[in-house]
């Protein structure tokens, strides 16, 4: 589960509710302890929110910019497309795929104006000399990787003054990132349709979540002398102070 405030969400398994623009619906549950007559009750209800889909950044860009086939886009992004893409990916975490099993993670701080074939950075050689290298040249010389999309921009990650650039094609969106940006009207409509369910289905889902809680949460609560009790309803028993 991925915690968000008092709610817990899990990645989609066996279902798919894409919202478009690289976003999707995650389902989970919300919990809160409320006072009742002579006892404290644990209130559990289902919830849903938008997360960014874990996928290659190239595919994420295509969804954001509504590009159906990236191979049919041999030209660099227009300024308007680059600005739109930057607004969506800035602040997100990505992981690289060109270092084997070392999936290093970085946070995106910007998208370059120039493509990987023209974006340069200062590279310090072993002899101490500093030379200018394009991102495409560096990946070809360092990793023997010929970029498939050198005409696309790069992601600038980490701190801006360090000039760390990554080609889009070697990056994936890290899973479990909640979307805190405002949804579009179409995405909001899709979210409402995906979360609509009948009262019996909602009750059944809540019962399933309560059952799961008896496995995932008792150990942490027992350390605080709080216990779960299953009865005709789900009760949370607290010690008297």
TrEMBL record:
Superkingdom of origin: Eukaryota
Signal sequence, renumbered to the chain: none
GO BP field: regulatory ncRNA-mediated gene silencing
Statement: the UniProt record of this protein carries the keyword Membrane: no
Keywords recorded for this protein, A-Z: Cytoplasm, RNA-binding, RNA-mediated gene silencing
Keyword RNA-binding found: yes
Domain PAZ, first and last residues per copy: 56-175
Classification via InterPro entries: ArgoL1, PAZ_dom, PAZ_dom_sf
Transmembrane segment boundaries: none
A GO MF term: RNA binding
Family annotation (PANTHER family): EUKARYOTIC TRANSLATION INITIATION FACTOR 2C
Sequence similarity: Belongs to the argonaute family. Ago subfamily.
Record-given protein name: PAZ domain-containing protein
Organism: Aquarana catesbeiana
Classification lineage: Eukaryota, Metazoa, Chordata, Craniata, Vertebrata
